[in-house]
Each structure stands twice: as structure tokens, then as C-alpha cells.
Design brief:
mainly alpha, DhaK_L_YcgS, DhaL_dom, about 230 residues, kinase, Serine Threonine Protein Phosphatase 5, Tetratricopeptide repeat, kinase activity, two-stranded antiparallel ribbon
Amino acid sequence: MNASATPDAGPPAGPSGPVIDAAFVRRWLSAATNAVDREADRLTELDSAIGDADHGANLRRGFTAASAAVDKAPPDTPGGVLFLVGRQLISTVGGASGPLYGTLLRTAGKELGDGATAAPQELSAALRAGVEGVGRLGGAAPGDKTMLDALIPAVDALASALESGAGLVPALAAARIAANEGAQATVPLQARKGRASYLGPRSVGHQDPGATSAALLVSALCQVAEATDEESAA
């Protein structure tokens, strides 16, 4: 997960796309760490309008710490990687984003269990379980101007595409589009949860930083799947 290092590619792609093993998940989280580092200032700028102006800095600190934890003692299962990263985010990220992102990834890791690999449908179900955990923890729902406005459309799109017979890469591409559109759709919403809700109508007209960072994570997952698929075809 180190932002400057790329974990091993792992096994080649299977019939439905890249093999989802520990190396694949480490590559995803490395890409996510890079994305958070690259976009930290923008996330903080978004948060300064309707929050505490610390979202980007908090996530950068958390993902950097998670990178170090995984590099020090790399789990050998995809579920193990997600669980460790989630636990690390909970312990190192301030504000609400640490517990929320930590719950997302730790719950997904628990759902995947101890298997050495996961099928695309298993990853989809694990991510949905994580998103549902976020909803329970934060008490939020779609339309409340939170990270769920990006995450719920993403997991819905992923599951729908897989159910229709799409492979992992096109299914994640659909999830990426849905997450980005969901984040952008928070602009006209009035916040009903979190720090932004204190602003009432003044929260309208600003893109939610949590939904924006959530879309970054989904985009990073799609990016890694696409790159792995291309490497296997080369």
C-alpha cells in the first residue's frame, strides 16, 4: 500500500477479469493512497466550505499509516488486507471519516473472510456489506449529502452489471461512473447529516467532500482492475 510502491501483480486475469487476491487488494489500496495524496488539497478545499477543512489531510494521514501497516506485515488474503486497513483508518483518522471509512473496509474484509481469492460477486457483496455498515454507523441515507451518495450508486451499479453477465472490469467501470455522478449530484443537496448539516440551506451549492473521496476510492479500484487486465493481455 505504500504510495511509492506497487505490490506484485498476482495471478493473471481469469475468465471474468483479474483474480482478486491479496496482491490485487494491495494494489487497489496503493492506488487509493496515491489518489488521496494527489487530491488532498482539493478535498480539504471542499471541506472548508461546509466542514472543518481537514478531510483531505485526515485521509492522507490515515491512508499513509495504513500503507505502512500493510507493508510491515502484509496479510495473505484479500479480506485480511481490507480488515487491517479498516482498523488502521479507525485508529489514525480524525473526525467522522476515520470511523466511516474504517467501517467500510473492515466490514468488507470480514465479509470476504479467509479465502485466498474472491469472486467478483463476493467482492460486490463485501463492498455492499461495508456500505451498509457505513449507513448504520452514520445514520445517513441517500440524499443526505454524504459519502453514501457516491457509495450506494457504485455498489448498485457493480452488482447490476455483474448480474447481467459483465466481467469485473466493465462492472467496475459502471461503478466508477455511478460514484462520480453521485458525488457531483450532491452539489444541489442540503446536508442532513454531519458537520455540513449545521449550515442548513448554506450547504447547498457545494460538492460533498466525503462523496468526492468515496468516488476516488471506487475509481482507484477500477483503475487497478483495468491495469491488471491489460498486463495479463500483454
